[in-house]
Amino acid sequence: xxxxxxxxxxxxxxxxxxxxxxxxxxxxxxxxxxxxxxxxxxxxxxxxxxxxxxxxxxxxxxxxxxxxxxxxxxxxxxxxxxxxxxxxxxxxxxxxxxxxxxxxxxxxxxxxxxxxxxxxxxxxxxxxxxxxxxxxxxxxxxxxxxxxxxxxxxxxxxxxxxxxxxxxxxxxxxxxxxxxxxxxxxxxxxxxxxxxxxxxxxxxxxxxxxxxxxxxxxxxxxxxxxxxxx
Length: 230
Ligand SMILES: [Fe+2]
Ligand SMILES: [Fe+2]
Description:
Layout: H1 2-31, H2 37-59, H3 79-106, H4 112-140, H5 152-160, H6 184-204, H7 211-220
Helix pairs in contact: 1-2, 1-3, 2-4, 3-4, 3-5, 3-6
One fe (ii) ion binds at residues 17, 44, 48, 95, 125, 128.
């Protein structure tokens, strides 16, 4: 049941990502027609539709829900800043976390078909993460990107989902690994580690302060590398 639900959840995330990348491709090309990023986004939208089918296969059938991608950026931002907000949240944070999750799963003994699917997803998500960093690097040459600092906690809350909420014992069973699902304590530690080791240093390179983001994370995961148990 947990396995089915986890793959169904991923299927919805893939569908939403497909809509989001197709929309961002149009938005970015409107203000930066020479950017290579929109073509990468269109390719990524195709990848996500393929991932959707793979996730539905492992969920045991078609998954309902999500017919678009709501704009997640705050309304106070202009179109260019909003596209950057959304790209950083979806690619630099969420796709980077996805790579870490799938890589962590591939280090375990998953069933053969599950491994195949994880491999295919991992390969694509690496390039989806990169396209986010490519867009951020390009925008950093044009805009003051430091405004993103104060929004990082809301991006993290979106990316964390229910990872820091209380959980049932069965959600932490090592048996889940065979089916391509991380036990929740492992999911938390992977999430926290990836932010501290990859995402935060990456953002800081562009002069984006991660103080608020680090404070948000410390409240949820006080011990270094801790699982955030309550
Ligand atoms: Fe995907
Ligand atoms: Fe992706």
